[in-house]
Amino acid sequence: MKKIIMTFVLAAALGSTCAAWAGEHPEHPAKKEAAAPSADDQVKGLEEMCAATAEARTARHAEKTLYERLGKEEGINRLTSEVVRLHLQNDLLKHMFDGLDNDEVAKQVADFMISGMGGPAVYKDRPTLTESHRDLKLTNADFMSAGGDVIQAMKNLEYGQNEIDEVVCALVGLRSMVVLGDAAP
């Protein structure tokens, strides 16, 4: 569960960080020479980054769980509500929430995160990630867009970069369970 959550965040963080840097530095040669990386390439880069930082993330989690650093249940509920709010403003994602109870979606995602990030096991007797995402036919582009919203939500709530990276890597690790609409790398 940790892996899924971190996957979205990390992918978005990397994409946002790279895009922001290039945007702030128009003279950067990469901006003139190369097109933006594809969603598949961005996912691959995130997977590599997460693999390279796994030891440091594990050490931080052993010292103090991500659940605690995100503010336990209250902080995670606030985070998932902000993520859903941003998804509803995201033209690529908002249609996926048609007919859903957005508060219930935020609650279920919060329960999933709480259970997977070191908190009590409150996510049980629910559909698997694959079951709950199967009909959405998500692509890596959707994944990256959703991850961008997760990163923005965490920035809006003033979480630190370590926490953002850890949530992103959790999401990246779960990507294969939710990205079912394209041939993901």
Please, could you describe this protein's structure?
The protein is 69% helix and 0% strand. It is mostly helical and 185 residues long. The chain has one domain (2-178): Globins (Globin-like, Orthogonal Bundle), CATH 1.10.490.10. Helix 1 crosses helix 8, helix 1 (2-24) packs across helix 9 (161-172) and helix 3 (39-63) packs across helix 9 (161-172). It is globular and about 40 Å long. The protein starts with a helix and ends in a 7-residue tail after the last helix. Residues 1-31 have low confidence and may be disordered.
Number of helices: 10
Low-confidence stretches: 1-31
Separation, N- and C-terminal Cα atoms: 20 Å
Number of strands: 0
* Number of individual domains: 1
**Superfamily at the CATH H level?**
Globins
> How would the global form be characterised?
globular
Structural class: mainly alpha
CATH class: Mainly Alpha
Query: Helices and strands, in N-to-C order?
Result: HHHHHHHHHH
CATH architecture verdict:
Orthogonal Bundle
CATH topology: Globin-like
Largest sheet: none
- Return the average pLDDT rounded to an integer: 82
In angstroms, what is the radius of gyration? Answer: 16 Å
Characterize the quaternary organization of these chains. Answer: single chain
Helical fraction equals 55-70%
Strand content: under 5%
